[in-house]
Specification:
Ribosomal Protein S5, domain 2, alpha+beta, disordered C terminus
Amino acid sequence: MNKKLIKEVKKSFKEHFKTKPLMVFSPGRINLIGEHTDFNDGFVFPAAINKGIALAINKSQAHMCRVYALNKDEIHEFTLTDIQPLENGSWKNYILGVVSEIQKKGHVLGTFNAVFAGNVPGEGLPYRGLRQVAYRDWQERRGLDQDGSRQRAVGLWF
């Protein structure tokens, strides 16, 4: 786990939202053998690495969700009604997509504030998936999977 990254994300959350967050870290992974064969019933040998993505998140009393991408120095605000992908939405569409999928499963989400950052280099590692895993882990910690289909988020790739 990358303590420096986690500390920076937590500090940024407190500065932006003036409250303590729930912290989630999703490690990056490498495949020592079997790249892109796991979804074809092939053998793989993945390993977690010390790089990844940190997410600070907590509920909000505001009528909008606010997500700050620390690496990009960008904030995105949105409501939880009628979520649609944004044209040229970049990282924002991954957040909107995860929230939308949670809602499609019938879970009622309240508004939230979040800050995330990562230190995964380039496109060589599954950075986008890490954001989704971090949000999924937050969902799990909130106890949203009450139907017996509870899955551990770390290691899942959506």
